[in-house]
Amino acid sequence: MKKTFVFCGKGGQGIIFMANLLSQSAINENLHSIQTQIYTAAQRGDVSKSEVIISDYQIDYPKIETADYFISLTKKSLLKFRELINDNTIIIFDNTYEDFNDDLFKKNVIYKLSFTKNSFDYFNRCDYTNIITLGFLIKLIDIIKEDSLIKSLEKFKKDLDNNTKAFFIGINLYNKSLIKKEV
Fold it and tell me: Do 106 and 85 contact (CB within 8 A), yes or no?
C-alpha cells in the first residue's frame, strides 16, 4: 500500500501543520511516512504546498509525481498545482469562498465542502479549517485510526481541546457527505 497526498492553500491556513499531523499519525500506525513542503512567499499569503507519502514499505523517493488525494483550500492553489492531479486523483476542495468548474476534472471524484464556514460556525474563526479538513480526510482514506491523529495532536500541543473538536467536526462532515456530495 502506498498513498500520496498533496495539501495546498495559502500561507497561514495551516497547510504544513495538516501535512505534519497526517505524516505523524501514519508513523503512529507503524507505517512509513515522509512529508515535504515548499517555503516561498507563502508566509505572506501566497500559495503553500506540502506533500505526504504513506506506505507500508520503505519510501525510496520523496517526490510525488501525481497525488492519490489532492486537498486544496483555495482555487488559486488548486490551479497552480493541478499538474499533480491525474484522472484517479480524489480532490477535496474548500468551497466556502470560491468554486471551480468541475469540467476541469471530469473523471475525478470531487468533494467540495465548506470547511472554513464550519470553522467559523463552530469556533467563530477560521483557525480550525485545516483540522476540520484533516478529520474529513482521515475518515475518507480509512488507513489512520482516529486515536493516532489525537496522539499526534497531543504531541504538537497546539490548542488540543479545540483541535480535537475540529477533528470530529471533519469526521461528521464526511459522514454527511455520504448522503450528499456537497455540504
Answer: no
What pLDDT is stored for residue 69 in this prediction? 98
pTM of the complete model: 0.92
Strand partners, 111: 92
pLDDT in tens, 24-77: 999 999 999 999 988 666 556 678 899 999 999 999 988 899 999 999 999 999
C-alpha cell at 6: 498533496
Closest listed residue to residue 89, CA positions, set 76, 106, 113: 106
CA–CA gap between residue 77 and residue 1 (Å, rounded):
27
Half-sphere exposure of 54 (CA within 13 A, CB side): 23
Strand, helix or coil for residue 156: helix
Complete domains list, the chain, with CATH: 2-94+105-177 (3.40.920.10)
Starting from the edge strand earliest in sequence, which strands make up the sheet with 2-10, in order?
32-37, 47-55, 2-10, 69-72, 90-94, 109-113
Residues 17-34 as b or e (16 or more Cβ within 10 Å = b)? bbbbbbbbbbbbbebebb
